[in-house]
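Annex B. Sample input.
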Amino acid sequence: MELFLTIGDFSRATHLTVKSLRHYHEVGLLEPADVDPMTGYRRYTTAQIPTAQVIRRFRELGMPLEEIRTVMAAPDVDTRNRHIAAHLGRLEEELGRTQRAVASLRDLLAPAESAAVPDISLRALPDTAAAAITETVDMADGAAWMQGALGELYATVAGQGLAQTGSAGGLFSEPVFTDHYGEATVFVPCDGPVRALGRVRPTVVPAAELAVIEHSGPPIESDRAYGALADYVARHALAVEGPIREYYVIGQRDTADVARWRTEVCWPVFRVGG
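Annex B, continued. Sample output.
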């Protein structure tokens, strides 16, 4: 025999607010066992309590309602667990970003005299043949765009039997920084002209004189490296017009451990080569 609870009693039993229960009913996530057609009163069964508790746990973990619905509707345990594992993986990535942000903020708040002097070098690079993708990018989607473009470039270079001759990199126009929307180029140096395919085009990355600093961690968190590099260039009156350049020495393709990623941030400067 099914035992029914009013929405208020079910709320007390599950620690879900009445407002949440009504919303979950409206979106089809947790439907009451019975709705009075005259009054609209909702009633739940005691058998629904575990389901409600699972939903509450998922919400505490920040899982979106649509994703919870997918998990709850999974046809088997393996499928359900894959969805849950994917969400937990995203939580771990977010925790890592939070921990790195906290560590960075603590460093910024530390006395300036305790900070290490940044290791900045001057470098002259020649023209370099490469496969490239150039697009106008909204930087809110910059990280995803970059990883997708790099994947396409690596696949195209390898698929055409070419060898990579250096670290992949990017060229970024001024509006990328000032407006967070502008032209960006991601490239992979290779030992021959790539045939145009999809978004990929052959290019020559122009020679440049650069001030270079290395950033540890994901490129999206490189603001401190940029700040140190800008300070160095300004102090030495070296700045010239030109796109900012990055080289992805170690990245997602090499290791899943973002702490081991290495990006060279490069600022164009007055001639430093011979």
